[in-house]
Amino acid sequence: MHNVVMKKFMFRRNAATLWAAFCLVPMCALALAPAQSLAPAPLFASVGDRPAILYDGLSLKAGKIFILSRFHPVEVLVKLDKWTKVRGAGNTIGWMENTFLGDKRFVQVGGVSAEIRAAPNGSAAIVFEAQRAVLLESTGPVSGDGWLPVRHRDGQSGFVRLSQIWGA
Questions:
Q1: Helix, strand, or coil here: 29?
Q2: Of 103, 102, 104, 107, nearest to 88 (Cα)?
Q3: Model confidence over 89-102: pLDDT tens digits?
Q4: Which end of the chain is more exposed for a tag (fewer CB within 10 A), N or C?
Q5: What is the pLDDT of residues 44-70, one digit of tens each?
Q6: Distance CA 16, CA 132 (A)
């Protein structure tokens, strides 16, 4: 009789612990977390040295959606062992093999044009102007006030405002 009572007690204790772990703890964590941390910042990557095929599924036999040019920036939505689900600048979503992701980071001019300046401020001299969809290599981290150091494939470099590009 004692074993039956102990088994029922242990079952109820385990059930209560699981309920607390899955219901109460996440709710407490949400209540303590700042509001801006609930939505994670987008994670970006770039296609490597060769073009990548975007598929509508996790297989080479899936339908081919699009071909991304080399160095094209993509937003990483889901990353698995061999495949990554990405979104391109034009909101095209698909799966690509991880082997096509590159080590370098690139951004794409999002508006009509972007002014690349000599220093990270709006009053600095304009080094060059890049037109819509031009790819620029990211050469460092984003500054606290929204500037990214970049380099054009021709070698010119400077700083671009985050609001003028996509992929950072």
A1: helix
A2: 107
A3: 888 999 999 999 99
A4: N
A5: 999 999 999 999 998 899 999 999 999
A6: 57
